Amino acid sequence: MSTHEPFRPGEPDEPAGPSGPAATPSDAALVDFAFDLDAHEMLRRTHVLAALGPDWDPVAALRGEEEAYDLLYSGLSAEQQRIYDELVAAGVLPMRGGGPAAA
Question: Which pTM does this prediction carry?
Answer without folding.
Answer: 0.44
